[in-house]
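Collaborator request, handled under Task 6.
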Amino acid sequence: MIIDTLFGLCPNGVFFKESFYMRHIFWAGDSTVSTNKAATFPQTGIGQAFDRFTANDVVVVNHAVNGRSTKSFIDESRLATIYNDITRGDYLFIQFGHNDEKIKDPSRYTEPHSEFVENLGKFVNVARNKGAYPVFITSVERRLFDEQGELKESEHTEYVKGMKEAGEKFDVPVVDLFSMSRQFLEKTGDELSKKYYMNLNKGEAKWAPEGLTDNSHLKYEGAMLYAGMIAKGLMDLGEHYETLIDNAALNGTGIDIEFNG
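Structure tokens returned to the collaborator:
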């Protein structure tokens, strides 16, 4: 999108205009990414927090919706909506897995090494057919520890593998948020990691008066933490991907992106 903005005065006293190009990140995903309203505060999606890290010419267009898998997102024509709006030079971030795992729900479930990969390819086609750049982002890990305080084996593993397979098949870069978030949780431990997820005390939120235990969804602190990890992943990709990120913002957050807890 080309934006015209009043920039200053010429010597003859006439305003002049400068045109600049706004790049868009379209984000397809689930509730770990989606934008939340005040009614569910302090729950915050990663896509909701990500613009704290972006360059000034980047706009995040968050299409992530609670409960969606690759299958249901496509079946509800949400990918078609992105196709209508995305354009050359934009980016499509594709972050699914949590709900593709719902084996008892045929409206959402996908097999991780076949249908899941095929669906990811449909997202890639939407981006490339419009001259945009697709990026895969693996699922953020759930905060599930055993009685010994060790992080449990993940339910995401096969879908992470499936997304990496799709990355190779379709030649799409992968930001491995799953591995980064899992490493963070392992180093931080059960008790200290609670503050990043939607674990609420009684009275902390009016809509959950009895409190809440939710180790999948994120508070603002968690959304910022994992958004920062994605930003770092894009920086590591180099080339045009790193230009999406404001390096000063990334370094100035005070968030330890090196997973030291």
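The cover message to the collaborator said: "The chain has nine helices and seven strands. The longest strand covers residues 2-9. Please let us know whether this matches your experimental observations."
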